[in-house]
Fold this sequence. Notes:
Blueprint: H1 2-10, H2 13-31, E1 34-42, E2 47-56, E3 62-72, H3 75-81, E4 89-92, E5 95-96, H4 106-121
Antiparallel strand pairs: 1-2, 2-3, 3-4, 3-5
Amino acid sequence: MVFFLLILVLNSSIVQTNLATRITNQINKYYSTDINVNQVEIGFKGDVLLKDVFVADHLEDTLFYAKNIKTDLNILDQLLNRKFVLHNATLDGFYLRINHYEEDSSLKSFISKLNLKFQKRE
């Protein structure tokens, strides 16, 4: 009975979005990024829909935006292995804007932030 209630609560879009906001805030804090996800829907089979995804570059300009990002995650496998891998994704309403600044491009700067922190963890 408790397991069934847990499934129902976790299947709520409000709970999923709140959880995703917390995770996104932690990612932003750890990587010094500006990523926002407006809504998240996670299905029973591990399919994930992220709605209104916005990523800003290091100068707070739009790096990319997607109306919807659909993917599926093998959550159990990834939790057990502590590795989160995005195998396939479908982007709907995707917009990518690469600005070239004197010091670097916006995309290269964003990827460098992620790589630098990832390399420090290993």
